[in-house]
Design brief:
single chain, mainly alpha, globular
Length: 489
């Protein structure tokens, strides 16, 4: 049942209005800014969860702001896929803001940082709650603008160069998306997301054009999804503060690219059109190449955040691979991995930030024995790495299991070999970090009470526990994901 409600719009507006309120808080007044930022993110999460709950109950929550042309309007509509992405982003943002309070306590330009951090939250929710490609595109562009000040936050040459690269890649990708949606509107006179897609009637007359437009869509959204060779902005963006890296990699930017790809495949083209035109193969080839090559490059990185960056590039490929199999099991695995990867990768980046805050060390080669100095942080890091490799009982296993099932369901067992190879490569670049931290001698000795500040450590511990619980109790995520798959198919 469709419900007309202003709640999706309120969930977008609250963090943006809250961000502008922070502009009036003096730079040095942490006692007001920090609780206010936490309150705004928490209220936003509550609003989003209330909308998600309505969707779980079987409703589609919609609200139209402006009608521009027939079939072209600025409107919101929260279906199960949008609820999954929006709910995940809003909840994890609360943890990210809490973590940021500790991480940024001794940093500069804190007011600017929190202003754009909250604006990015509102825009990300807007992407999730978009009713059509036009609305999604507008928020997609806004996200680039909102996150740019966060990427260049440090203000040094490395950050400035990373910001320029980020903007160039993002705008080129957005230009391809704009080209694609203009062609789409010219063909079918609508850009609305629909079950089964909107392109079916054009297959008989415009098959070649549909293939070309699909490729430009994938390349456009593939920039933020970090599909190789469109990925190089992402490792460069590691010049940003660690909470921004977590934002880029786990929650908002890269996931918005993947979300756009999912929307194109399932809400614009639809499974029948995708299968008839054999379009899934294009994505499967691109992401398989990305999964393996990014993992190999990750092994060569000594800077911890860069190794995590290439890990993200590889892991994002799992999501698109599962979806491109065009089977219920494959899509289920891809959607579950959106959740699992977000939880696991945000832990790993939070741990990296804690290490930098406490020790100042950024390179893996400098972390021998760090587990004796920061045992809680490194235990959480171990949980994250086990999940990334795909070992029970951590939550990363179940999504890869579903994708493997989807490979068999699609009659493409070759992709099981891709996933197994990737898991082995994950182990090859993650396990040495753990063994060096706990079993090699270094400059670190046990010091009582030497961990990151509580505002940083608490999100790390809570999210680690959540990963274990979700890994053991699959009924917490799988039923909802299966309902999303049922809706999309």
């Amino acid at each position: 049942m469709e419900i007309i409600s202003i709640m999706p719009l309120i969930a977008i507006i609250v963090p943006i209005v809250g961000a502008f309120l922070l502009v009036f808080v003096p730079e040095k007044n942490d006692n007001i800014r920090n609780p206010l930022a936490m309150l705004i993110s928490f209220i936003t999460a509550c609003l989003v969860v209330s909308v998600v709950q309505s969707v779980i109950n079987g409703n589609i929550v919609s609200y139209t702001l402006v009608k521009i042309l027939p079939g072209l309007d600025f409107s919101l509509s929260v279906d199960p896929l949008g609820a999954l992405f929006g709910g995940l982003a809003a909840v994890l943002w609360v943890f990210a803001v809490l973590y940021s309070i500790g991480y940024m306590s001794h940093e500069h330009n804190k007011r600017r940082y929190f202003v754009f951090y909250l604006i990015s939250l509102g825009v990300t929710v807007g992407i999730a709650f978009s009713a059509n490609l036009f609305t999604l595109y507008l928020f997609y562009e806004m996200l680039t603008l909102a996150t740019y000040p966060l990427v260049i936050h440090e203000g040094n040459k490395e950050a400035q160069a990373a910001g320029v690269r980020y903007m160039i890649y993002s705008f080129v990708g957005a230009g391809l998306v704009l080209f694609s949606l203009l062609i789409t509107y010219g063909m079918v006179e609508t850009l609305s997301f629909m079950q089964g897609g909107i392109m079916g009637e054009m297959v008989a007359t415009s098959a070649l054009l549909l293939r070309i437009v699909f490729i430009t869509y994938i390349l456009g959204f593939g920039v933020k999804a970090a599909i190789m060779p469109l990925h190089s902005w992402l490792p460069s963006a590691m010049a940003a503060p660690t909470p921004v890296s977590a934002l880029l990699h786990a929650v908002a930017v890269v996931k918005s690219g993947v979300f756009g790809i999912l929307r194109v495949m399932y809400s614009i083209y639809g499974t029948d059109t995708m299968i008839e035109l054999n379009l899934g193969v294009i994505v499967l080839v691109l992401v398989s190449f990305t999964i393996i090559l990014a993992s190999i490059i990750a092994m060569r990185q000594d800077v911890l955040k860069r190794r995590l960056a290439y890990s993200t590039i590889s892991q994002l490929g799992y999501i698109s691979l599962g979806a491109a199999l065009l089977t219920p099991l494959g899509l289920s695995g891809g959607l579950i991995h959106i959740i699992n990867h977000a939880l696991l990768k945000i832990i790993l980046f939070f741990c990296a930030g804690a290490i930098i805050t406490v020790t100042g060390k950024k390179k893996i080669s400098e972390l021998n024995g760090i587990g004796r100095r920061m045992p809680i942080t490194m235990l959480a890091f171990t949980i994250g790495t086990i999940g990334m490799i795909g070992i029970l009982p951590i939550n990363g296993f179940i999504s890869k299991w579903y994708i493997m099932g989807g490979s068999l369901e699609a009659g493409m067992p070759i992709f099981i070999l891709i996933l197994i190879s990737s898991a082995l490569l994950n182990a090859a670049y993650f396990i040495p970090i753990i063994t060096a931290a706990f079993f090699k001698k270094g400059d670190f000795e046990p010091v009582k009470g030497v961990e990151a500040p509580l505002t940083m450590l608490l999100p790390i511990v809570v999210l680690s526990v959540i990963c274990i619980v979700v890994g053991i109790r699959m009924e917490l995520t799988v039923p909802f994901v299966e309902s999303v798959v049922t809706y999309l198919f």
